Amino acid sequence: MTFELALMATAIHILIWEKLPEWGTWFNTFIAALPRPLRSLYEQWHCPYCAGFWIALVLHGLTGFWTIPDLASLPGYLSVTAIPIGWILDALATATMVYAAIIGLKAIGLPAMKAHMMKEDFMKFAFKGEDIQGNTGATSAN
Q1: I need a labelling partner for 135 at 20 to 30 A (CA). Which of 2, 15, 21, 112 fits?
Q2: Average pLDDT across the chain, whole number
């Protein structure tokens, strides 16, 4: 098993569904300007598993990478269906990894964000009335 495809698909999912909508209004304006069927697809594919499947199919076609390389050579009795079945099964495996990665990142992110906010609150109240100057440890009263 390889992780390149899943890593790239996870990065693309994060970029398109989590980061670009936050980076100004241009991306949201672009999505709003899309024809309704494409806009609907963007909204429906917010799920990391669903989006991960389609992203994995596109990336596999572009790069030739496999998450499970053995799926590239399925048994001969599958005939002409072997290649599409291999691609679909590989994309499903990749989508599962994308889903696990996104869920894992969100699970880690919430406690990390809460800890950061608690530290900021502590610093505000612990050093109320003092300016903290860099890493020198020096403070000056306001």
Answers
A1: 112
A2: 87
